[in-house]
């Protein structure tokens, strides 16, 4: 057993603590995305927060991560309620309503309101991002809209430039779906809507010159 003095032992224990928390957070991406925000709201020193997180995880085990996540959400909502900011008070009210929604439409409406309160609607409206190919998406939307009047040209357009492969243009980058509650970039939503409309046109068009097998292809 190596002989460590008090300072070396303290430094080593901190290194082990940080490494343990890092490993656990890598296996729990939901927790990782929200720890920093919770720490900022509660004004907990980061070293203390890491010790708290590690202790809770070791005590509860990975199988109870959902219970831990609910506990962290509760801490987050209470910290907002304690703030004197009217916008944060409104945010906590919205958050509580979201968790008790009775329908998809109600949930989406409240999520949009929540994004507006937190400023995430600005991020959604701005098409610029390093996580996906914005210019190619814009061009693709224009191409599909310009060819929709001709069934043959529309089908050719759907088959070109990567077709309708789901991971084209960086559209599956995880960071595009963790910034706002109501969805990702508005431009991406527009692209998906345009693509679905084009597919429906190919399916429903009354054109006897294009048989069903050609449409499926």
Compact summary:
The protein has 217 residues and is an all-alpha fold. It has helices at residues 6-27, 29-42, 46-60, 65-81, 86-98, 104-118, 120-125, 134-147, 151-159, 186-204, 212-216.
| Approximate strand percentage | under 5%
> Which parts are unreliable, with pLDDT below 50 for 5 consecutive residues or more?
39-44
- Class computed from helices, strands and strand pairing: mainly alpha
In this structure, how is the largest beta sheet organized?
none
Number of beta strands: 0
The backbone outline, from C-alpha atoms, is: elongated
* Mean pLDDT across residues: 75
Summed up, the helix count is 11
Describe what this molecule looks like in 3D.
With 217 residues, the chain is an all-alpha fold. It has three domains: 1-82; 83-118, no CATH class; 134-216, no CATH class. Helix content is 69%, strand content 0%. The chain is built from eleven helices and no strands. The chain has helices at residues 6-27, 29-42, 46-60, 65-81, 86-98, 104-118, 120-125, 134-147, 151-159, 186-204, 212-216.
Task: List key phrases describing it.
217 residues, single chain, elongated, 3 domains, mainly alpha, 69% helix
Set down the secondary structure blueprint.
Blueprint lengths: L5 H22 L1 H14 L3 H15 L4 H17 L4 H13 L5 H15 L1 H6 L8 H14 L3 H9 L26 H19 L7 H5 L1
Helix pairs in contact: 1-3, 2-4, 4-5, 5-6, 8-9, 8-10, 9-10
């Amino acid at each position: 057993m190596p002989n460590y003095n008090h300072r070396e032992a303290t430094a080593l224990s901190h290194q082990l603590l940080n490494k343990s928390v890092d490993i656990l957070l890598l296996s729990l991406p939901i927790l990782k995305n929200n720890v920093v925000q919770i720490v900022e709201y509660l004004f907990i020193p980061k070293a203390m927060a890491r010790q708290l997180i590690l202790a809770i995880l070791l005590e509860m085990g990975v199988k109870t991560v959902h219970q831990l996540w609910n506990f962290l959400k509760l801490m987050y909502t209470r910290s907002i309620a304690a703030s004197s900011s009217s916008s944060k008070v409104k945010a906590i009210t919205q958050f509580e309503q979201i968790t008790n929604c009775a329908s998809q439409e109600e949930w989406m409406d409240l999520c949009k309101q929540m994004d507006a309160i937190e400023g995430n609607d600005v991020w959604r409206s701005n098409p610029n991002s390093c996580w996906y190919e914005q210019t190619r998406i814009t061009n693709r939307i224009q191409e599909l809209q310009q060819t929709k009047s001709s069934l043959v040209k529309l089908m050719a357009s759907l088959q070109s430039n990567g077709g309708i492969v789901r991971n084209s243009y960086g559209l599956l980058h995880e960071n595009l779906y963790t910034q706002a509650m109501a969805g990702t970039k508005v431009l991406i939503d527009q692209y998906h809507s345009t693509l679905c409309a084009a597919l429906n046109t190919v399916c429903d068009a009354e054109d006897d010159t294009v048989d069903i097998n050609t449409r499926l292809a």
